[in-house]
Amino acid sequence: MQQAEHNTFYPFVLLDTIGEAVFVIDTQWRYTYVNKKAEELVGRPCEELLGNTIWELFPETVATIFSAEMHRAVQQNTPTCIETYYPPLQKWFESRIHPSAAGLVVLSQDITERKLLEVERGKYAALVSSSDDAIVSKTLDGTITSWNHTAERMFGYTAEEAIGQHITLIIPPELHQEEEDIIGKLRQGIRIRHYETVRVRKDGTKVDVSLSISPIIDRAGNIIGAAKIARDITERIELERRKDEFISMASHELKTPITTLKGFTSMLLRKLERQGMQEEVPMLTRMDAQINRLTRLIDELLDVSKVQAGRLDYEEEPVDLAALLRETVEILQPTSPTHPLIVKETTHAMIMGDKDRLGQVLTNLIGNAIKYSPQANQVDLSITTSNKTVTLRVRDYGVGIPKAHQKHIFDRFYRGRVSHNKAFPGLGMGLYIAHEIVKWHGGEITVESEEGKGSTFVVSLPLKK
Do residues 297 and 313 lie in contact, with contact meaning Cβ atoms separated by under 8 Å? Predict the structure, then answer.
């Protein structure tokens, strides 16, 4: 590094080691010394800078606040500090200007990253402030660190009241374990999306919310907290409750006339058969089949309503799942001659559960396998066991389920669609009910599928202890 001879009193070697750019300017505005950091900051070697004036080298700064502050520091002999943006380099600089007998010493550093971060923080702060959702951040020990305006409205606590408190401030006592589970997932870097739960307001009333929670990560990659977005879904939950009440009421009202119609149809069918009126029998048989279909739909509607209300009835007893599978196949096979139901593998498997409800699951899975494989001619069934689990598999060779749709397959009212977006018949309740029944038994139901190659539904249940 070079410097003018009359400025040899500066400790130049030391200045080359510091983290800031150092510019020494004489009373004629000429550079007399720059350190290595200064060269890097402006992107020019010292040979281009020394002996030349700042205004010749950087004419863009002449009519800026930087120029004004430089002149003010000289005229008033007063140090100053400014932040300026230099367009040619697209950088922000922070400069501390110190007058001296020889001119000026300017210490500068690139603060572009900090300024951009401030802009992003400003955008984020505006977004958080104007959001219709409650946005809250907390540390990993649950201490609230931020609380936006919507959180104030939703939960009744001001930011001053909430910040510094533990997040259990808004969690009902019976759900405190839920918070520990959430923190455990966050420590592993797992995001939680659209988790529906209940929170409590300052006045003690409950509010239904949908939570999306993400870990907060520092620059070193450490998880240091969590950002939580809470959406008030009370109105939606209430609408769903009313809808379920309507479905339940309508289903109950439909049950009586359908039962009566079924009885009269059966009587008429038997009478026609006794009188030898064989031409009319097929029509009544088809009519009876449609009544049976309608009865199943009504039963499913009633089951959905009961599931939502937590009133689906169960009876617990020892159940031989392999025997139940054989019984179900014997019942369903005569009605589905185009699809042989092939039991590939089975083993003695005793579980504790409700035989009728488990039979309902088997019937649904096998019925779906037939319905969603119109061009195939086989459904494979198997039961295997491990030390603690019995696993049932129902495999078809049909249309399959697109990967994007698989996460919704057990949602209420979801219906499978073929590639041209035409829905299969049904109300989309069977798999939802099956999922709830399996969950009640302490088990799990999953799907493995590839579009155009078929699907395998896997039910895992705990073996009888």
Answer: no
